[in-house]
Structure prediction request, 590 residues.
Amino acid sequence: MSEKKLHNRSFEVFGKSKFFASQLRIALRNCGYIDPENLDDYLNVRGFEALAKVLTGMKSEDVIAEIKKAGLRGRGGAGFGSGLKWELVAREKSDQKYVICNADEGDPGAFMDRSIIEGDPFTVLEGMAIAGYAVGSDKGIVYIRAEYPLAITRLEKAIDAARKANLLGNNILGSKFSFDIEIRLGAGAFVCGEETALMQSIEGHRGMPRPRPPYPSASGLFCKPTLINNVETWANVPVIIVEGSQWFASVGTEKSKGTKVFALAGKITNTGLVEVPMGTTLRHVIFDIGGGIPKGKNLKAVQTGGPSGGCIPVELIDTPIDYDSLAKVGSIMGSGGMIVIDEDSCMVNIAKYFLEFTQSESCGKCTPCREGTKRMLEILTRITEGQGKEGDIEKLERLGNTIKKASLCGLGQSAPNPVLSTIRYFRNEYEDHIKNKKCTAGACSKMIRFEINDKCIGCGACYETCKFDAIEMI
Amino acid sequence: MKTPLEILKEKKDAAEKHLKEQGYFSKKRVYVGMATCEIAAGSKEVMEEFENAKRSGLDIYLSQKGCAGRCHVEPTVEVIDPEKGSVLYTQVDPKKAKEIIQKHIIGGEPLAEGEK
Prediction:
């Protein structure tokens, strides 16, 4: 069998251009490198070797120990230790356990899960099967949003092909282990990315979160022990098994191991997907890999973690990307959206944009999130329309902190982050909007005023072109 | 009894043989990006161009691939020569696809591409 390493293999094809040079591809290792609909291609890059290795000579405790030693943390946002999660599910005694892949990617501007499924669906199946073996489950479910039709088709084809090759189904590869995977489609509600809401949705109920505990590991889908991980987490699992936890743990920082995929978007020259080792600085990602800001503009801030994350100002651009450092500066790793903001953007307006999203996606079950985000949005809208009042900033802070503390699920607990972080770092912009009724970036259209100054010679050009007959000839 | 690793090895050898029969290791391989993002950028027309050429006798191993993450230069096409290595083409449209076929695949001379 070929002994070539799994990670970074794709660089044989892509070469070492500036965009790829400092990336390390583990989860994305096969994306853009193999035919996602061809099992032969996946087998040719040592596909399913990890599963076979596990089935041949590893006990379930060994597998969990490997994942724990690797230090893999959930890539969906919260960063919970995957090994520990697996162990908790493995410990439960039950006639039925479930393994779920969370592919309900809802952050605006994030598309790493879609890319992994569209580019390398087999790796997700393999990761889930390994987990099924480790925790003692024979049933996997991929919960994916219906807005990803191509990803769904590829996943269906991959499941079919794997079943035919006895890589899924009964007695996989001649062993005693049986595991099958089915697909469940989500209707695209943001809150269904939250694990308890996701399971409610699979059960056929309205997607609403429920209080934890009990955690899914004890009582999850249909009240059975359930292991739920994000697409990117699953994609890391086969590499850990084949290349060893020691190698995996050597990548990244002390507390955040491995790599993270980011979807670079916004005001950046090279938009795209990048996978870098944990601990890489934001500066490196934006300026070296991303190619900097177009049109010679200056960087103002970076928003990580999508609508649940925060804005990190340019002064903190040397912050290393890992779970704890990002939390320290008031943002989160999240699922990996990275939106670059340049000097032409108004931070109040950006905070309003994200809050508009979370507010409309709030499921309405708990009051702090339902009412709180609504009120916050009202205040923000007022500020961007030039109607801001003295004390609005303090009110936003108070409301935001209450929502964070009192909300039922991650959606509400993180919804105020964009507002709180922009107040923390760009308070002067809020003050400018409220006190001076001025939006320096010129993004809040209702606050812009036009004046004709003394240089006017009455040429009439504005009279000719005005679409609203606002200039009168007297 | 065979172990799962041994069974997998058989499957892998079969896969390799299958790929070999299709010319995976001997012919020039052409990969066209066919993820949602690439298709939106126009890769379906590019794929058609290569498919047509293959139907009319061009001896290549043609395949789709997922998204490598280079959104700013999609659609992308890679031509991998088993002997000479790979060449990446970016922002490919049907016209550029025709050029790639004529100059690179038939003529053996890769098109000039700036670093992206």
User: Anything to note?
Assistant: Helices of chain B lie at 4-21, 36-41, 43-55, 94-106. The CA atoms of residues 26 and 82 of chain B lie 6 Å apart. The first strand of chain B starts at residue 28 and ends at 33. Chain B has a mean pLDDT of 92.
